[in-house]
TrEMBL record, chain A:
InterPro entries: Thi_PPkinase, Thiamin_pyrophosphokinase_euk, Thiamin_PyroPKinase_B1-bd, TPK_B1-bd_sf, TPK_catalytic, TPK_catalytic_sf. Catalyzes the phosphorylation of thiamine to thiamine pyrophosphate (TPP). TPP is an active cofactor for enzymes involved in glycolysis and energy production. Plant leaves require high levels of TPP for photosynthesis and carbohydrate metabolism. It comes from the Eukaryota. It comes from Brachypodium distachyon (Purple false brome). The keyword Transcription regulation does not apply. GO terms for molecular function: ATP binding; kinase activity; thiamine binding; thiamine diphosphokinase activity. This is Thiamine pyrophosphokinase. It is found in: Cytoplasm, Cytosol. Pfam families: TPK_B1_binding, TPK_catalytic. Keywords: ATP-binding, Cytoplasm, Kinase, Nucleotide-binding, Transferase. Residues 188-254 form the Thiamin pyrophosphokinase thiamin-binding domain. It catalyses: thiamine + ATP = thiamine diphosphate + AMP + H(+). Pathway: Cofactor biosynthesis; thiamine diphosphate biosynthesis; thiamine diphosphate from thiamine: step 1/1. The keyword Transmembrane does not apply. The gene is LOC100828492.
UniProtKB/TrEMBL annotation, chain B:
PANTHER family: THIAMIN PYROPHOSPHOKINASE, THIAMINE PYROPHOSPHOKINASE 2. GO terms for cellular component: cytosol. InterPro entries: Thi_PPkinase (IPR006282), Thiamin_pyrophosphokinase_euk (IPR016966), Thiamin_PyroPKinase_B1-bd (IPR007373), TPK_B1-bd_sf (IPR036371), TPK_catalytic (IPR007371), TPK_catalytic_sf (IPR036759). This is Thiamine pyrophosphokinase. Belongs to the thiamine pyrophosphokinase family. The keyword Isomerase does not apply. The keyword Iron does not apply. Its main location: cytoplasm.
Length: 262, 259
């Protein structure tokens, strides 16, 4: 008689970090860090600034400097810049404007200058930096929220998605105005709590990098049942969340994506 | 193994066509996102222009900002798509009426909810292209990247499902296309309009052996997979890049400011 495979541990996910700060937080992470890459800020960027560590990757500092006052036009620009300042600006400093770097440096932001390293992307460097420098008290339950990782140059987007695969044990969420994505590693079964007030209903499960021979879900309008997914064949896109909890089990790492409401 | 030759001559102004272009039969498909700034240039090259549903809204409202025409009406009368195709749930009634009156064929596929608008368009392009013209055909698509990630993923899947067709996705920042593993690839670089940033991605399945020439960081029988090494932020170092791989790869190159 064959022994059944050991049950995989469960991993819970929640987008509670997107709720307005007055709402009760039932997030699955205790600590959050925000990384801002060099693209236009999404409209909800101010909502994410409360967490413990805010890192701008090089030109991401320009985006925060210009973008935060634009998103909060009824407030005084210098007040906004002070309240929404990064803790760290990291990178080779070839994109950040000199006056932006000086402005934040005067406010106490740490500038971590480094020579250009071809082998890793800006996001990879920031994720490694956050983990290595104990900037957050409890790294084991840390969730890194990333702005500016999607869209723009396609090779950057692919490099950023590869960071999710390179750090499968870390919680890293890529956010844009339209959606969020994160990795569901095959080592776990996944419980995704849906915050209906801010996300959904459109969702998808994408096998980037390798096919899946068996994926099973609950909670979606078109559930998968030990279904094969691959590029060139079926991938789950334009699906719909039908319940408050979606579960996913797969033999392959999958990218989960859900649309964000405006 | 057969060689497949690629060139971005459709990005050049129409009069500046190089002597050997692999395709001279361009079809343009416009999806429902902001038009790239160089859309008039693509329109001029295309023999056939198809708007996928809300793509028609984009032409109607955004083209006037890209031309030197004196008024919107002049621009709108100049840029009439031959076909508007899709499930028609995004196109505005006034836009549909305008193009219908101007002679565009409205191809309503709302009964088919199984496939995306892009898939429907590519499928019907393939059906209406005679076999002897298929090797010259190149489909240029705008609006396939960015926006909702599941839409982008589904659009990229169309490249894999129709891997025997030349289909190129274009945005303001870059272009992407599939390099099927069935061929060796020669990519002629038009350095006045594209580069230097480029990359190669094994999105569907890993590669155990990829070899390139013409890049700053060439690959030599290299393994590539997500979760390990993929070629991002590479640089084109030559007028011709060659790629040979045991896996289907997505090629991307950045676009220079074309306006």
């Amino acid at each position: 008689m064959a022994t059944p495979p050991p049950a995989r541990p469960a991993m819970s996910h929640s987008s509670a970090f997107l709720l307005p700060s007055s709402a009760p937080r039932t997030g699955s992470a205790d600590a959050y860090a925000v990384v801002v890459l060099n693209q236009r800020l999404p409209r909800f960027a101010p909502l994410l600034w409360a967490p413990q560590v805010r890192v701008c990757a090089d030109g991401g500092a320009n985006r925060v400097f210009d973008g935060m006052p634009e998103l909060l036009p009824e407030q005084d620009a210098d007040d906004v810049r002070l309240r929404y300042k990064p803790d760290v600006i990291k990178g080779d400093m070839d994109s950040v404007r000199p006056e932006v770097k000086e402005y934040y440096s005067n406010l106490g932001t740490k500038i971590v200058d480094e020579s250009h390293d071809q082998d890793t992307t800006d996001l990879h460097k920031c994720v490694a930096f956050i983990a290595q420098n104990s900037l957050v008290s409890d790294v084991s339950n840390l969730c890194i929220l990333v702005l500016g990782a999607l869209g723009g140059r396609f090779d950057h987007e692919m490099g950023n998605i590869n960071v999710l695969h390179l750090f499968p044990n870390s919680r890293i969420v890529l956010l844009s105005d339209d959606c969020l994505i994160f990795l569901l590693p095959r080592t776990h079964t996944h419980n995704i709590h849906i915050e209906r007030s801010i996300e959904g209903p459109h969702c998808g499960l994408i096998p980037i990098g390798a096919p899946s021979t068996s994926t099973t879900t609950t909670g979606l309008r078109w559930n998968l049942d030990k279904t094969c997914m691959s590029y060139g064949g079926l991938i789950s896109t334009s699906n719909v969340v039908d319940e408050d909890q979606v579960t996913v089990t797969s033999d392959s790492d999958l990218i989960w994506t859900i649309s964000l409401r405006h | 193994m057969d060689v497949m030759v690629h060139s971005s001559s459709f990005l050049l102004p129409k009069i500046h066509q190089p002597a050997k272009t692999p395709a001279n039969n361009y079809t343009l498909v416009v999806l429902n996102q902001h038009l790239p700034r160089f859309m008039p240039r693509l329109w001029a090259h295309a023999k056939l222009r198809i708007c996928a549903d809300g793509g028609a809204n984009r032409i109607f409202y955004e083209m006037p900002q890209m031309t030197n025409d004196q008024d919107c009406e002049t621009t709108r009368n100049r840029y009439i798509p031959e076909i508007i195709e899709g499930d028609m749930d995004s196109i505005r009634p006034e836009v549909k009426r305008f193009y219908s009156n101007q002679g565009s064929t409205i191809s309503d596929k709302s009964h088919n909810q199984e496939t995306t608008d892009l898939h429907k368009c590519i499928s019907s392009i393939r059906h209406r292209t005679p076999s002897h013209e298929k090797s010259d055909l190149c489909v240029l698509v705008t609006g396939a990247l960015g926006g909702r990630f599941d839409h982008e993923a589904a659009n990229i899947n169309v490249l894999y499902v129709f891997s025997d067709m030349r289909i190129i996705f274009l945005s303001d920042d870059c272009l992407i296309q599939l390099l099927p593993k069935t061929h060796q690839h020669e990519i002629n670089i038009e350095s006045s309009v594209e580069g230097p940033h480029c990359g190669l991605f094994p999105i569907g399945a890993p590669s155990t052996s990829t070899t390139t020439t013409g890049l700053k960081w060439n690959l030599s029988e290299a393994k590539m997979r997500f979760g390990s090494m993929i070629s991002t932020s590479n640089i084109v170092d030559s007028e011709k890049v060659t790629v040979q791989s045991d896996a289907d790869l997505l090629w991307t190159i950045s676009l220079r400011n074309l306006t």
